[in-house]
Amino acid sequence: MLELLVAGKRRVKAVYVSNTAEGVDEIAELAGGALRLVSPDRLFAQARTETHQGVVAMAAPLRPAELVEMLRNPRALLVALDGVTDPHNLGAILRTADTAGVTGVILPRKRAAHVTPTVAKAAAGAIEHVPIALVAGIPAALERASRERVWSVGLDADGERTVDELEVATEPIVLVLGAEGRGLGRLTRERCDVLARIPMHGHIESLNVSAAAAVALHEIARRRT
Question: What is the dihedral of CA 64, 69, 73, 78, to 10 degrees?
Fold first, then answer.
């Protein structure tokens, strides 16, 4: 909620604040004329969830970003999600993306999680700062990335090199993450220029996709600093 008001990228129609809520002074101040003090029952009716924390906003929908515009950013650090369906994973990845300085996220329109209240909550405000492009399919998006001279790096347990060995880490890049369980799809894997892995030193062979995103993105960000 706070990031929605701070970013100022979307028109906020109303901000409903429970008249019993505490610690919401900054939100109330930023809301200005859109502020509405209401009873807890009225707030629950607006939120349709018990996890509203005393504040609900009615805002214009997020505007999808343009893929080509994101690819043409000379400092492009993008994330493409090949069929991630768990909203908590998507939210966590968006949160990590913002902390790592990601310039955009690419999501397929079908068979994938999109921004919902659950995703927004897990993202902790990152949806207001990280542009999101919706595409027909990740393989086609990676083909376009190649035409725009942007490297596609697929994160895969069988990658030929580790993320800290990526020679293209400082170039315009799309980090491609696969779906929970199955990983990268066959065609997506074929469209990647490089397959990279995260070194594993224990008994477990893989990380959850959101945890893997955190490790890989911050390693790439470190190299780009």
Answer: 40
Q: Is 200 helix (H, G, I), strand (E, B) or coil?
A: coil
Angle (nearest 5°) at CA 111 between 106 and 115: 55
pLDDT digits 0-9 by tens, 35-83? 888 787 787 777 655 556 677 777 777 789 999 999 999 999 999 999 9
Residue 210, sorted as left (phi over 0), alpha (psi -120 to 50) or beta, turns out to be alpha
177's CB contacts (< 8 A; 6+ apart) are 79, 80, 81, 82, 84, 93, 155, 209, 212, 213
Here the tokens at position 194 are 């490089």
The model's pTM is 0.82
Sheet architecture: strand order including 12-18: 35-38, 12-18, 55-59
Which domains, from first to last, does the chain contain?
2-59 (no CATH), 67-224 (3.40.1280.10)
